[in-house]
Amino acid sequence: MIYHLKGRMVEINPTYVVIDCNGVGYMVHISLHTFSLLNDAGEAIELYTHLQVKEDSHSLFGFREKSERDLFRLLISVSGVGASTARTMLSSIEPKNIMEAIASGDAATVQRIKGIGAKTAQRVILELKDKVLKVFGEGEVFTSQNNTNKEEALSALETLGFARKPAEKVVEKILKQTTDPTVETIIKLALKNL
């Protein structure tokens, strides 16, 4: 296993970089998040890597932050999520936001990623929720209170007989307009608007 590469970046694109390590050029697939953390070609860099060995290819994936590589490895451990899908996930949403969505059970955020359907989003959350908290710890994965309050309020509104989609739109609007609302406040304001 190649743990990391340290060398001179000779080529940079949004989807890959070429790193010269003592005369050997490695093509390394990257996410847009890692791309945003890199500078121009010619600089010396270090990328944490993951080597994927398949029957017909060997692919090297690189990450500027070790935590992003750890999250990538967790994502590809889920059935139905391959390396390309995991890279798309890390390119679509900041890794920290993906961790928060998984930790809080926010399937809607995960589902917004291109290529992720409802079943895959639920599977990712179900299989990774405990692992994300264990690998990254409670401190690094900050589950926002708003997300918890939002889910509790939506659950209550559904119990009261309101459809999820319209209730979700109203609750989203309330969260944008109100600073740190309690569950009760969200429900009261939602009832006035539904």
UniProtKB/TrEMBL annotation:
It comes from the Bacteria. Residues 1-64 are annotated as: Domain I. The keyword DNA repair applies. One of its GO terms (biological process) is DNA recombination. Keywords: Cytoplasm, DNA damage, DNA recombination, DNA repair, DNA-binding. Signal peptide: none annotated. Residues 145-194 are annotated as: Domain III. InterPro entries: DNA_helicase_Holl-junc_RuvA_I, Hlx-hairpin-Hlx_DNA-bd_motif, NA-bd_OB-fold, RuvA, RuvA_2-like, RuvA_C, RuvA_C_sf. Its main location: cytoplasm. The keyword Cell membrane does not apply. One of its GO terms (cellular component) is Holliday junction resolvase complex. The RuvA-RuvB-RuvC complex processes Holliday junction (HJ) DNA during genetic recombination and DNA repair, while the RuvA-RuvB complex plays an important role in the rescue of blocked DNA replication forks via replication fork reversal (RFR). RuvA specifically binds to HJ cruciform DNA, conferring on it an open structure. The RuvB hexamer acts as an ATP-dependent pump, pulling dsDNA into and through the RuvAB complex. HJ branch migration allows RuvC to scan DNA until it finds its consensus sequence, where it cleaves and resolves the cruciform DNA. This is Holliday junction branch migration complex subunit RuvA. It comes from Antarcticibacterium arcticum.
